[in-house]
Write a structure and sequence with these properties.
By secondary structure, the protein is mainly beta. The protein has 1 helix and 20 strands.
Amino acid sequence: MRPAIRFALTALIVLISIRATCGKPRLPQTYPQQAIKFTDEVRFHNVSITWDGRHYFAINGGNEDYCDLNEYDGHGRLLRHHTMKLDGRAIFYHPQYRKLYVKTYSQDLRRVELAQERSELALDHVFADDNSSPGFAPDGQRIYELAEGTVHVYEFKSGKELKSFELADFYDEGAYARALAVSEHYLFAWTSEVKVGVYTLDGEYVTQIELPRSGYAVSLSYCNGMLWVAEDADGKTDHAEGYWYGYRL
């Protein structure tokens, strides 16, 4: 075979190989490494965390009269404390609207106005479960809610349910059965108190991640390229220290 022909065939094989793998999502590590830990002092429970590109925002749940929404820098240093009248279950920063949204203990989604420390109704009676902690697609297009073993997929803008599917092998135990986190390519749901199942965005089981510690059930979150869980403060009406742990996948 002539050198020129051999070179052309080799280049073609390499090109085909690159095209076959380009854009294919990387599988998460099954034993992820902790990348960050910081203290989150709240009343009641540490329930959810999000990232706006510069700051983390963590919200608590348990009582709407004692709601803490704490703002941190990228190293987990407290910047500001915001007092809100929300019983939070999940918080999300929408990159297009540049707003924070909170799913409360209800079937509603509320839009947060930090400067005024207030919130407005964004979606009314959209969720299937009062106590669920849904995951939000990082691009802000869809919301994924796990309720009684079914994942409901909603359009963010309208709240319209686009589809639903059953999730296999999730941990069907109390609040663990109501928490879902979402990355660009995967869904994350508890399969035990220390293990998290990884699924495609259509609910197909992929693998399982084992965390170094158990986390508060509804705290399961995904933001800034990390999977998060919290060690619960359980602060009652007095403040107490909880902790957030972020794991690189």
